[in-house]
Amino acid sequence: MIDKSSPLPIYYQIEEQLKKQIENGELKPNDSLPSEREFAERFEISRMTVRQAINNLVNDGYLYRQKGRGTFVSEKKLEQQLVGLTSFTEDMKARGMVPSSKLLSFEIIAASEKIAEQLQISLHAPVYEIKRIRLADDVPMALESVYVSANLVKGLTESIVNDSLYRYIEEELGLKIGEANQTLESILASETEVKHLGISSYSPVLLIQRNTYLQDGTPLEVVKSSYRADRYKFTINMTRS
Ligand code: 16G
């Protein structure tokens, strides 16, 4: 399986072979990999070469290591198109997964200067602060904090936000969601994110900040979400003008 006379480096050949096995399902999520020593013996190559291939695959997210247990195949990342303005519930249902939320906090607070400015409401006006863990098929995917004006999004309850906020806003309140601005950046997970997302310390997370507006331009929500970088991949389609 390894061609030592090929101009392609051996570590690269191993990487490509493992990737192929992961992509065609021969190796499944959470399958364990043979040890570096077994690999090296099987292919008659140095352990250094095996380590290089495995390190690259770990860095690219195909494999993960567990201290004292070995190396395993990662779950496939969810691909999320950055086009339509969709809700978490819609995104998960569209891929046949069951969305759910674990409510961490739900309260009315007085708008801080920053939130008041973004929602264009007066300082200390009532604002719902909703903190949820968003899960797909019972696996935590993101930690999300949403701020909406209590005078605009009236009558919110815990059971509504345990279901879908966008569904309530559109179907029950009849408000028309128009557009959103969003930024996406990579950060290191905080202790809270590590705890609630079940990821290891020092993992990266994808921080998304969204400001959503109604069709008439009224600011609707200010959102901060941390998505698991090991489970999410965002895709964008671009057209050259
Ligand atoms: C998504 C949105 C968030 C919105 C929520 C509504 C991002 C980064 N955030 O998580 O802005 O509040 O969906 O979801 O995409 P829901 O209708 O399922 O409650």
Automatic annotation (TrEMBL):
The keyword DNA-binding applies. CDD domains: WHTH_GntR. Coiled coil: none annotated. Gene3D superfamilies: Chorismate lyase-like (3.40.1410.10), Winged helix-like DNA-binding domain superfamily/Winged helix DNA-binding domain (1.10.10.10). Residues 8-76 form the HTH gntR-type domain. InterPro entries: Bact_HTH_transcr_reg, Chorismate_lyase_/UTRA_dom_sf, Tscrpt_reg_HTH_GntR, UTRA, WH-like_DNA-bd_sf, WH_DNA-bd_sf. One of its GO terms (biological process) is negative regulation of DNA-templated transcription. It comes from the Bacteria. PROSITE patterns: HTH_GNTR. GO terms for molecular function: DNA binding; DNA-binding transcription factor activity. It holds the Pfam family UTRA. Keywords: DNA-binding, Transcription, Transcription regulation. PANTHER family: MANNOSYL-D-GLYCERATE TRANSPORT/METABOLISM SYSTEM REPRESSOR MNGR-RELATED, MANNOSYL-D-GLYCERATE TRANSPORT_METABOLISM SYSTEM REPRESSOR MNGR-RELATED. This is GntR family transcriptional regulator. It comes from Priestia aryabhattai.
